[in-house]
Structures are given as C-alpha cells and as structure tokens.
Amino acid sequence: MIKSTFGLKDTPFYRDNLELLPQQKKAFEYIKIHSQHGEFSAIVGELGVGRSVLREHLERLNKERANVVVSISRTMHTYLNILHRFAIAFKLDVKTAKLEQALIQVAYNHVKNNKTLYVLIDEAHLLDMTTLRKSRLLFDKSPKKYNLVLWGQVELMHYLAMSINEDLKSRITYSHAILRLNNDYLKAYILAELEAVRLGANVFDEAATELIIRSSQGNLRLCRNLCYASLTTCCQHQKRVVLISHVNEVLIQPHWRSHDELIKQQIA
Question: Residues in the chain with pLDDT < 50?
C-alpha cells in the first residue's frame, strides 16, 4: 500500500539493509579488531535497541572470503547443539565423539588460509554457564584468530558479575551496552529512512514526528514499527502526509497500551 501510494520501489522502515547507527558502528569495528587475537566479547542491551541489526551486519561478513561466521540461536543452547552447529557451518561429517578434535583442526586450517572466525551466540543471558565454560575451553585449544561474541539482555552481565562466574568474566576483552537512543538520533533515523526511499522529510508533519519519538521512548524497534504503522494508516485514509491523528489511531491499538492502561480499560 505504501509503495503504490507514493510510487516507491522500496518500503521505508522495512528495508533489509539497515545502516548502523553510531554506537552500533563503534561496536562493529571493535569486534572486528578483537577478532585478530582470539577474543571473548559481550554485547548487551534491552529489547529493540538495535542488537539484532548489529548481529545481522556481522553475519554478512560471512560473504567475504576472509571470514567464517557461525550464528547460534537460543534454541540451540546446549553444548552438543553448539558443536553440531559448528559442524554444519564447517561442513563436517564426523561422529560426535570426534567432533571437538575435528573442529579444532578445521579452525587451524582456516587460520592457515588467513580466515577469521566469528561465533555469535544470541540470547546468551539464557545460556547455561556450564555450556559457556565448555565453549570457552574449546576455543582455548583453537588458534587465536576468532571472536566469540555473546549477545543478550543486560542480565547477562549480572550473571557474569557473580563471583562463581569470575573465570568467565575475566576472559571478556570487549563489551558494549547498546543504549536507548536520544530524540536527535531517532529523528535522524526517521529522516534517513525517508531519504533512502526518496521520500521527502515533510511526509511526517512535525507534530506527528514529535509524538512518534516521544512514544518510542528511545527504542529503535518501537520507532520503526510506529513509523511504518502510521504511514500505512495515512495511506488507508488516502492521504500523503502523516498527521498526529494517524499516529494516535495506531497508539490506541491494544499492543501499544501499557499494562496498567489495559487493566483500567477493562474495569471501566
């Protein structure tokens, strides 16, 4: 609907190749630097602040011949599943008992070919610390040209700060907390999305933009979703400028209401 209304080739706020924001770009570069020495990193942040975008950019490094990227989801948070995921990535067909030894040998072969290994473990705050210890010990036996990167919510650092996990925390050489965005960054993001698809900045009027930024509360994902929904609502009304009324029409939907507001609405 948005593309047909405005005559666009791409849909704003739902593009695949999102550019990194400054704090994401900084973390991206540091992860690449630390990968040259066999490092252990952690990226934390609240839901929706941009961790996934940063991870997707690192996953794209796999397209470069000099890199191998293995991305592990939270559904595979057992040590055996992690080993099997490595085996798939390295195209290994060996028995489980010999898997560790085969993985170490493949890692050495990659280093001989001047390749860098990135291992990205998503939702690491749900990861059992015993599994993490085993993974760390496995990489200790590997050549020092990799970066094991843990991705998770802020609870991850709380777990690592516990005295029982001091051995793991002491191995981390780089960590970064992705923070909520301030209003200027959110506004710049909105303008960049419009510019990327060749839409004018006046597609959102000033009042609508201010309400979107205020309602997003620094959360990049909420900002994107609210912009897209407001733009869709605008098109449904056969308009070409997003007004504050369009934004409010989205905000009254139940999933945008807070828990307390929904309870009060039920009582009323």
Answer: 259, 262-263, 265-268
